[in-house]
Specification:
Layout: H1 44-72, H2 77-94, H3 98-126, H4 153-174
């Protein structure tokens, strides 16, 4: 006869109990949720775009002002760009509204860039050009009289050469 196998019952673990008598389970506790896209302000990128537009407008206004005044030759270019940089910086620091501060920052940036370019250009023009010397050959020395001959020197040399030629031809005929 076949014997029936019986299983031994599994040992079950006791469920974890809360330390507090009326405490709720962890899943039932309220949590802070991440803000959804609907909760965020929809004008965040609009605000940044307006800031960039104000800055660009200030840059355009500063550059055009400097170029126009320099073109009319009312003031030297360095003077007008320095003045526009100062005015734009003052507006950027002490402007009453946000728009005025952004426009001032743009004007100061544009005029400051132009002032830097003018200073670099003047520095490059004031420096004499250095001769390019090949590494293969030493520089060619120019003759001492390359700058110019004294007046009448060329005619005197021509006359001396003519006399020598005449003397050599006379010796050949006599011989």
């Amino acid at each position: 006869m076949a014997t029936k196998k019986t299983r031994t019952p599994r040992k079950t673990r006791p469920k974890a109990k809360h330390g507090l008598r009326n405490a709720a389970s962890v899943s039932a506790m309220p949590r802070a949720r991440a803000a959804t896209k609907a909760d965020k302000a929809p004008t965040d990128w609009h605000h940044r775009a307006w800031q960039v537009a104000k800055l660009g407008g200030g840059m355009l206004a500063g550059a055009l002002t400097c170029a126009y005044v320099a073109r009319q030759d009312w003031l030297p270019p360095k003077t007008i760009t320095a003045a526009t940089t100062a005015v734009g910086g003052a507006l950027a620091v002490g402007g009453e509204s946000d728009t005025l501060r952004w426009v001032g920052a743009g004007a100061a940036a544009a005029a400051g860039g132009q002032l830097l370019l003018l200073a670099v250009d003047d520095q490059l023009q004031s420096r004499p050009a250095e001769p390019v010397v090949s590494k293969d050959k030493p520089p060619v020395k120019k003759p001492a009289n390359a700058d110019g001959l004294p007046p009448g020197a060329l005619e005197a040399a021509y006359e001396r050469a003519r006399r020598r030629l005449a003397m050599t031809q006379a010796e050949d005929i006599a011989a």
